[in-house]
Amino acid sequence: MLFFKRKRKEKDAKSEMQQEVKKEHLSEQIEEYLSKLENAEKEDEIPILNMLGSLYFEMEDYDHAITYYEKSIDQNKALGKAFTDLVKLYNMKRKEASKAGDREAVQVYLQKSDDLMKLTKDTIRGNM
Amino acid sequence: MAVIDFIINSILTQASITIALIAFAGLLLQRKPFGEVMSGSFKTMLGFLVLSAGSSIIVGSLLYFGDIFSEGFGMEGIVPSIEAINGQAMNDLGLANQIALTFLAIFIFNILLARLTRWKYIFLTGQALLWMATMTTVFGSAAGLSGIGLILAGGLVGGIFAVAMPAIAQPIVKKITGTDDIALGHFCTIGYMFAAGIAKMTGKNSDSTENIKFPKGLGFLSDTYLSVAIVMVPLYVVTSIFAGAEFGTELSGDVNYIVYAFLQAVQFVVGVYVLLSGVRLLLAEIVPAFRGIALKVVPDAKPALDCPVLFPYAPNAVTAGFITTTIGTVIAMFVLPWFGLAMILPGMLTNFFAGGTAGIFMNAVGGKRGVLIGGIAHGFFITLLPALLVPHFNSLGFVNTTATDVDTVTAGLLFEWLIHPIMNLFA
């Protein structure tokens, strides 16, 4: 049993290390895209904003991910990853708020989901 | 005693007040500030009264339509509209109080079932719950249930649908979204599963719809009011021509009979507009209050969201599903009367939302070919089920209309085919 425990500890430590490395790599990428965003023309911003949303999502920094995805959708209401990731993100934040007993935040994220749903309908109509 | 009598007989029998009180309770439970509680309750009452006004407009227009259709074609033409069913049940059948309380009961049963069973779904599409409450109340009452029994039976059946439908759809929703965190809360799910079944059988190895390039310009068809008008205006005008000038003028008075038919069709659209504004006002306060409570009681719940939640995953499939479902409803319109069923006119609103969502389901399992064949079958299916309800609606006094949304129709048929005979045994 002790042997298994040691093995699991080793495994945990290894995966923690991998996580660290991954996070470092993600941070570097985020820095890179943030500087790209600073220098980008208005019309080139959308893919950068989406990338930042996606990278922050991977980093599990959900608030920043939401901020960049929302900015992207504000500028261009094309259906895609920004929409689908935002649904997931709002739900995660709603769940967190629900567990923490924060009624206000639960309502905020439910309302955001509702708004996104409305936007989805309108976008489909515009695209048809 | 006199005061209690007054409260029971004169205040609580007024549905608009009961509904406002339900919102009041929900907002209080949410511990909202007093001002918000009062304004929310008042807006809810206002919403109910607006809904009633919309219903009267729709009924007026449908009565006219029924007359010219019978004269012109010698048969019934039925407009599928769950909004009209809801309005007539609340206004003309005097079931508004029961519908409001059943609506509340469905919420409570949904929370209980999500808490106690492994179906952790909280149904958040308020409008769909209102339609479900309408159908279970109408058919529960027709089956002989009344009072608290009616409300509990409707609440239980509706509550089971609220957790079961997202659960049934979840394997395909998971395939579409790649996540198990969110679910679909839309009472057309039986149709989606039927369509997906056909698509799976017929669409093996077919390419995804997302590789098709659709021409733009169908957007106007998916606009809520315009799409209703696109069906209703030609229908009323052509029917009035078939009914003839002599008969038409009897109804239209000084106005030209064709112009009158056109205006009556637009009047129907106005009715839908007013009624839906009322529903929105009514639900805007109640739903946020109760869903907040629900998600607090069941924090690990999966929220079952309205169908547009799936639209971004396959936008082309939405368009394709809408078109193929519409074709199916048009075919069914002509075919069903051969079998002695009523002629059900295509409901463009349902075709867009249910057809579009079915398109995503069908594409996920059967690609392009699946959407084409499955979509036509879906259109046929969602016309057939409401057609089966028409004789029952007629006997209950509904005017030239039938329900849409196949899950609510199924709930109605469940009461009619199962609970009604059982009640008769004990009567």
UniProtKB/TrEMBL annotation, chain A:
It holds the Pfam family TPR_8. Residues 10-23 have a biased composition (Basic and acidic residues). TPR repeats lie at residues 46-79. InterPro entries: TPR-like_helical_dom_sf, TPR_rpt. Residues 1-23 are annotated as: Disordered. It comes from the Bacteria. Keywords: TPR repeat. This is Tetratricopeptide repeat protein. It comes from Gracilibacillus salinarum.
Automatic annotation (TrEMBL), chain B:
It comes from the Bacteria. The chain crosses the membrane at residues 6-29, 41-65, 95-114, 121-142, 148-169, 181-199, 225-245, 257-276, 318-341, 348-365, 371-390. The keyword Transport applies. It is found in: Cell membrane. Its main location: membrane. Keywords: Cell membrane, Membrane, Phosphotransferase system, Sugar transport, Transmembrane, Transmembrane helix, Transport. The keyword tRNA processing does not apply. It is a multi-pass membrane protein. The phosphoenolpyruvate-dependent sugar phosphotransferase system (sugar PTS), a major carbohydrate active transport system, catalyzes the phosphorylation of incoming sugar substrates concomitantly with their translocation across the cell membrane. The enzyme II UlaABC PTS system is involved in ascorbate transport. Belongs to the UlaA family. Homodimer. This is Ascorbate-specific PTS system EIIC component. It comes from Gracilibacillus salinarum. The lineage of its organism: Bacteria, Bacillati, Bacillota, Bacilli, Bacillales.
